[in-house]
């Protein structure tokens, strides 16, 4: 039996039973006792207690404190309420609202994994309202998934388990093949181990919305590392393809929430909520979201060609000739000079009028307009041989960058873009691919995780951290990389960094629950990291509600969180009722006659001659006609 059950925490909460067990804490059902508690006496609460084996681990205690601080800031109808927090050297616990219901994961499974558009909008709207409140208070959940959301009987949701909120980036990695935050719902930046923000939660909401509308996860595999890689690099099948009945507006909203680049997602949970409200008001609305492209690699070389044209263009034909100011001469004939000045002014005005009136005349306008050709996908030599470049109509400024899509020597970017109308002499910038940039992976074995991550990222590769058990490598140090050290990989590719962690048990021994009540059996199974499964009733001499059999035998080794089905006593089998007599037999009529007060069949016959005498001689019997 758990040593906390029956105990009183700080004299305020009496622990009744264990109702859940997580990676670093157990959750108990408890009752508030005194008047000095945060809730009235008798109120049922949930108490999350840091496990005893972790109480002296400063890192885990810090994480538990982080959770306490994070959720104590939040007060919202769709977030589990926090009543009290106690963190001491002896015991660390959080007192929360006790929610009696099922998880959203259980509800999805019950409905076959797929919901209607109406249900999806109903649930996602509540989740977004909760996240908008959390984000405004500086709390990012980082583990949004159906398992962390409770569903009440009235259809209201409660978000819970902000257990990894505010945890530093270095801790937000894959742990024992399992992501910090379920790998099926984490954002690409979470999978890479990069910094996360509220837009990471929006991505997770988009994955949940995708699952609700289609009944399928966007990325799934038995290998969690493979799922994480897909989150980073792959594009899921379109909702319009796998769930064609989904309204287009909901498809657009889901795709925007799940955009790989955070910049392409909704700016906030509130903005996504507004989009859902617009859909509710007009189901035919179309958003036509615009997306910015993936960022291009950093420039490594920049060369400017045809620089002679820069100075040449300044003196290019077409500029008006510079007029020399006539030298003023002294003269005694002032009236004549005044007349010449007036005439000169009139001539200049007339010339300006003619220039403005005939501005579109090619003879007066030396720089004609041209439509730019498309140079993307061609080589530098082909550009120089093109009519617009070879004739000098446009000038080219060359830049060179690494690019994994275009081969070396081919133009992959043009500014201004093709099809634009420009004046002759316009400078056009063309970026030529240097080809794929390759880097050689260094040997980071036994490096501290943070140092290895920094070194690899400085080379220009993405890093995905996976924690494995290796007794030969210190905890927190690098075991190996995949691809291996010394391999040559393209810049921008993802390298898996395997980091040593402590051994974590993945199996447990099944205890015997025969002879226990159902509730005691449930508690004992939870303590051993198992779950009570189905309950079948059968007659037994044992008291009603007592477990009389279990489908996984006691002492068996099985996986954590396995379900143990039990058979429960329905009490002793009732005795059978006596069968009624057969009307076709003589005994039936004799029994009936005897019951009515009559004698044998012979006396019945003899009495038929005189009904009145029979009546008088049988005072205990009255014929029906004498009633």
From TrEMBL:
The GO molecular function terms of this record are: ATP binding; protein serine/threonine kinase activity
The catalysed reaction is:
L-seryl-[protein] + ATP = O-phospho-L-seryl-[protein] + ADP + H(+); L-threonyl-[protein] + ATP = O-phospho-L-threonyl-[protein] + ADP + H(+)
List, as start-end ranges, the regions of compositional bias called Low complexity: 601-617
- Which residue ranges does the record assign to the PASTA domain? 366-434, 435-501, 504-570
TM stretches of this protein: 332-356
The record's InterPro entries line, in alphabetical order, gives:
Kinase-like_dom_sf, PASTA_dom, Prot_kinase_dom, Protein_kinase_ATP_BS, Ser/Thr_kinase_AS
Binding-site residues for ATP, renumbered to this chain: 48
First-tier enzyme category under EC: transferase
EC numbers, comma separated? 2.7.11.1
Concerning Gene3D superfamilies, the annotation shows:
3.30.10.20, Phosphorylase Kinase, domain 1 (3.30.200.20), Transferase(Phosphotransferase) domain 1 (1.10.510.10)
Q: Which residues form the Protein kinase domain?
A: 13-280
Task: Enumerate the CDD domains for this protein.
Answer: PASTA_pknB (cd06577), STKc_PknB_like (cd14014)
SMART domains with a match to the protein in the record: PASTA, S_TKc
**Is this entry keyworded Transcription?**
no
**One Pfam family cited in the UniProt record for this chain:** Pkinase
Q: What is this protein called?
A: non-specific serine/threonine protein kinase
Q: Which organism is it from?
A: Faecalibacterium gallinarum
């Amino acid at each position: 039996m758990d040593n906390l059950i029956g105990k009183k925490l700080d004299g305020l909460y009496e622990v009744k039973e264990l109702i859940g067990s997580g990676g670093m804490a157990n959750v108990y059902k408890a009752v508030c006792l005194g008047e000095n508690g945060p809730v009235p006496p008798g109120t049922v609460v949930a108490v999350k207690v840091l496990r005893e084996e972790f109480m002296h681990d400063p890192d885990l205690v810090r994480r538990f404190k982080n959770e306490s601080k994070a959720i104590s800031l939040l007060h919202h109808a769709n977030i589990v309420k926090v009543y009290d927090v106690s963190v001491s050297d002896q015991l660390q616990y959080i007192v929360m609202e006790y929610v009696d219901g099922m998880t959203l994961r259980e509800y999805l499974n019950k409905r076959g994994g797929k919901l209607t558009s109406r249900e999806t909008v109903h649930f996602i709207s509540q989740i977004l309202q909760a996240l908008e409140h959390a984000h405004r208070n500086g709390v990012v959940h980082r583990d949004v998934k159906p398992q962390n959301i409770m569903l009440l009987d009235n259809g209201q949701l409660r978000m819970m388990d902000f257990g990894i909120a505010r945890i530093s980036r270095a801790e937000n990695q894959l742990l024992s093949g399992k992501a910090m935050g379920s790998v099926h719902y984490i954002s690409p930046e979470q999978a890479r181990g990069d910094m996360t923000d509220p837009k990471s939660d929006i991505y997770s909401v988009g994955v949940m919305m995708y699952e609700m509308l289609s009944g399928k996860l966007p990325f799934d595999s038995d290998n969690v590392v493979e799922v994480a890689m897909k989150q980073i690099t792959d594009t899921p099948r379109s909702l319009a393809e796998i769930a064609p009945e989904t309204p287009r507006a909901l498809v657009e909203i889901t795709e925007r929430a799940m955009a790989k680049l955070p910049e392409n997602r909704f700016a906030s949970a509130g903005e996504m909520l507004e989009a859902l409200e617009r859909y509710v008001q007009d189901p035919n609305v179309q958003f036509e979201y615009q997306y910015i492209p993936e960022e291009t690699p950093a420039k490594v070389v920049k060369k400017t060609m045809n620089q002679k044209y820069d100075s040449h263009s300044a003196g290019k034909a077409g500029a008006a000739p510079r007029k020399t100011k006539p030298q003023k001469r002294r003269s005694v004939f002032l009236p004549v000079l005044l007349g010449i000045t007036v005439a000169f002014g009139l001539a200049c005005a007339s010339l300006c009028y003619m220039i403005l009136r005939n501005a579109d005349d090619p003879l007066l306008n030396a720089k004609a307009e041209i439509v730019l050709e498309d140079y993307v996908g061609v080589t530098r030599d082909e550009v120089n041989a093109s009519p617009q470049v070879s004739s000098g109509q446009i000038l080219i400024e060359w830049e060179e960058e690494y690019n994994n899509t275009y081969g070396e020597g081919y133009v992959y970017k043009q500014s201004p873009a093709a099809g634009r109308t420009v004046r002759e002499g316009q400078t056009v910038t063309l970026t030529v691919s240097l080809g794929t940039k390759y880097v050689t992976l260094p040997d980071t074995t036994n490096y501290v995780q943070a140092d290895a991550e920094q070194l690899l990222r400085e080379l220009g590769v993405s890093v995905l951290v996976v924690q494995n058990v290796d007794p030969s490598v210190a905890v927190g140090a690098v075991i190996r990389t995949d691809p291996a050290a010394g391999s040559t990989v393209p810049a921008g590719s993802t390298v898996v960094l395997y980091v040593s962690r402590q051994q974590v048990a993945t199996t447990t021994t099944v205890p015997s629950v025969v002879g226990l009540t159902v509730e005691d059996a449930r508690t004992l199974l939870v303590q051993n990291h198992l779950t009570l499964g189905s309950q079948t009733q059968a007659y037994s001499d044992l008291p009603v509600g007592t477990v009389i059999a279990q489908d996984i035998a006691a002492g068996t080794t099985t996986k954590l969180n396995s379900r143990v089905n039990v058979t429960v006593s329905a009490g002793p089998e009732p005795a059978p009722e006596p069968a009624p007599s057969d009307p076709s037999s003589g005994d039936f009529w004799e029994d009936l006659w005897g019951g009515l007060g009559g004698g044998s069949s012979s006396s019945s016959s003899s009495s038929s001659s005189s009904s009145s005498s029979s009546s008088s001689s049988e005072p205990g019997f009255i014929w029906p006609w004498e009633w």
